[in-house]
Design goal:
With 138 residues, the protein is an all-alpha fold. It has four helices and no strands. It is elongated and about 55 Å long.
């Protein structure tokens, strides 16, 4: 059976997202920025427990956003907020202040968060038809 028939998801054109979905993505983006900022502070304060707590919080937000919106966009929105917040916090200011030290914990937080972002965006719920829980393609 072909996946491009008139009733399949691949044959349906993309639609504009609703106002509620746009608001959900914007909220997830801001929540991702807050989790990135909080993780920056927590991972350095209580090493190694703080690092694990910060990464668990980020993973929970990324995967939870995907399941809440029933799509991978729900994982991408908080990931974008997280990455922007963390990258902005890594730059040093003219006064010499910065939030990230040059230690291994900071690098583990940055790289671990990026790996978790890819994993959660991949595992997140894709576009699935609603209805009975049957195998697709049969």
């Amino acid at each position: 059976m072909s996946n491009t028939g008139p009733g399949s998801l691949l044959a349906q054109p993309l639609q504009r997202p609703s106002a509620g979905r746009i608001a959900a993505y914007a909220g997830l983006f801001l929540l991702g920025a807050v989790v990135g900022f909080a993780g920056t502070l927590v991972q350095a304060a209580w090493f190694p427990g703080g690092l694990l707590l910060a990464l668990a919080g980020a993973a929970g937000l990324f995967l939870g956003g995907a399941y809440a919106t029933r799509g991978r966009g729900g994982a991408v929105a908080p990931v974008a907020g997280w990455i922007i917040a963390v990258v902005l916090l890594t730059t040093s200011r003219p006064e010499g202040d910065f939030l990230f030290g040059a230690g291994g914990g900071s690098y583990l937080f940055l790289l671990g968060g990026m790996v978790l972002a890819v994993i959660c965006a991949t595992l997140g719920a894709g576009r699935q038809p609603h209805g009975d829980p049957v195998r697709l393609g049969k």
